[in-house]
Amino acid sequence: MIAKSHYISDGDTEQIQLYNIQSALDAGLNCIQFRFKNAEHRQRCHTAEKVKELCEPYHATLIINDHIDIALALDAHGVHLGLSDTAIAVARKHLPDKIIGGTANTLEHVIQRNREGCDYIGLGPYRFTATKRELDPLLGIANYKILLSECARMNLTTPIIAIGGIQLNDIDELLQCGVHGMAFSTLINNSNDKKRTVLTLNNILHGNI
Question: What pLDDT, on a 0 to 100 scale, did the predictor assign at position 1?
Answer without folding.
Answer: 85
